[in-house]
Design a protein that fits this description.
By secondary structure, the chain is α+β, with helices and mostly antiparallel strands.
Length: about 100
């Protein structure tokens, strides 16, 4: 497995049966993805100041957060999480259908 950090530090992380090696990977989104962060901030301001339509809906944002919650629950319990069963009650509580 080889993961390339898309920042200017150009860190390459390599892992195989012999072990893992690599440099320090930037920790935050703005550090690792500076242009994407700037694009998101520009879009946010366009929405807030000029009434542009959001590119990502509230439902999509909720699904991403539920996916992260399911991942944390799986890590905590060590069990497989059926995402649809995990997310459906929370989606319904927020007024959405699957």
């Amino acid at each position: 497995m080889v993961l390339n950090n898309p920042s200017t530090s150009a860190v390459v992380f390599q892992a195989d049966r012999a072990g893992a090696k690599g440099g320090v990977v930037d920790e935050s989104f703005p550090q690792r993805y500076a242009q994407a962060y700037a694009n998101q901030m520009d879009h946010f301001l366009d929405v807030c100041m000029f009434g542009a339509k959001e590119k990502v809906s509230f439902k999509h944002s909720l699904l991403v957060n539920l996916l992260a919650d399911a991942g944390l629950e799986s890590k905590k319990t060590g069990a497989f999480i059926d995402f649809k069963k995990f997310a459906l009650p929370k989606l319904k509580a927020a007024g959405f259908s699957w």
